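Example record used in the benchmark description.
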Amino acid sequence: MEGAGESDFRKVESNSYMDADDLDLSRLLDKPRLIIERKRSLEERSISEISIAGNFRNVDSYENIFSPMETVARSGWNTPASSTPHALEPHPMVSDAWDALRRSLVYFRGLPVGTMAAVDNQSEEVLNYDQVFVRDFVPSAMAFLMNGESDIVKNFLLKTLQLQSWEKRIDRFKLGEGAMPASFKVLHDPIRKTDTIAADFGESAIGRVAPIDSGFWWIILLRAYTKSTGDISLAESSECQKGMRLILSLCLSEGFDTFPTLLCADGCSMIDRRMGIYGYPIEIQSVFFMALRCAFSMLKHDTEGKEFIERIVKRLHALSYHMRTYFWLDFQQLNIIYRYKTEEYSHTAVNKFNVIPDSIPDWLFDFMPTRGGYFIGNVSPARMDFRWFALGNFFAILSCLATPEQSTAIMDLIEERWEELVGEMPLKIIYPAIEAHEWRIVTGCDPKNTRWSYHNGGSWPVLLWMLTAACIKTGRPQIARKALDLAEVRLLKDGWPEYYDGKLGRYVGKQARKFQTWSIAGYLVSKMMLEDPSHVGMVALEEDKAMKPVLRRSASWTC
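Model output (structure tokens):
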């Protein structure tokens, strides 16, 4: 989360700035809130019951719980967000975390519209940490929803939706209409007594890369808001329906791709600097899959909606098969890759991507346990990135991109390799770090992404909420409690850092901001989920058995 400061935003009315009078939330906020009894969740329409030919019909809801823990209640339309504000265990960190989270609130015309990335008053350079990031706001939104404070989330969803309609240009190139901003900043003019918004669609970011995941996070958050509050009127509004269609039109467009995965540039996601994730990174594919399923549950079956529902169904089937088949790695599959033949031709090839076995890194042979597995970082022609990426694997579980067996195997891996993936501060964003000559080539000698620091093997407390949600969904909450206990030892004392450095995550990051909002919110969300596991329903989807492929290889996770 870096980039140019306020002066670098282009002060062009149609592109980067909009006056307060042009962004009036009241018109949409005044819509009546509709509370309905739970009959069936939107996402509970099985894809198998949607005809590709366009024969749509209503179906009954699933009765299967999304987690093996049958005692855990699902978060439904009528689930109370939180009976009492701050209804948490009396840990001294909780009240401090809430105070810090509220200090990060950003207001536009008197209404809260998000939280700034960090409130580090000791830092000399603000950079863009005083902005509201779409990606970063998600855990903050989850915390507010769980605490019964949904208005700020609704304000944020509407504000970013309005920003989507702006004309977006980088130099002389115009971005797609559906692109969502990476971040925005509210500028207060005390003399004119007006508020102005400056949005960054990638033109001010380091590397000038547009955030592919912003639109996906917006859809995921819209579904979480709807699931938590029972207010379907927002998702069904013409504005939100159009916003979803515009996002989907960008990522479902036809081209020269031979794979259902999304082709991405480096720096287009949470890992927003050059780290060798170009191609088909697991982080984007998992969030993409999640967003598709969320959009499928919320799109109307009108003329325009049906077209996109058909395209979503086709893509979900293809994407789930591709990821479960080619990205999955366990001990048995590693042994198969180790024995691959190369230069195979025709559709009968086993080594379909022509991966050279000698390219398997030495660390992987010791790292891979006999019990466990994970989705590797990237698969493309003659290339497999075998690194562990936390966010991608956790969202594979939450979205049901991973089968139940694969989800269990991912949890097994975390237990088997606790010291490597969790250490003394949860949680490694990537494992392992790259160093020496490889670091120079892959990162371009990036001084911030040195070994075991920042995105290069750093430990990020924000990932705690994703781990917790995945643990609860798989019936392994004890793993999350253990990680939370570790975080509570130091997070408050260290001033809520953005990330930690070192193999074990022992040191506060060398350039880490203090009072990093998503570190604070991630802790609160994790805490509230463990107190009331039904909250997980906001970000966890149920398995659609129609998408489960017959795997003809690597089935060791069932052993």
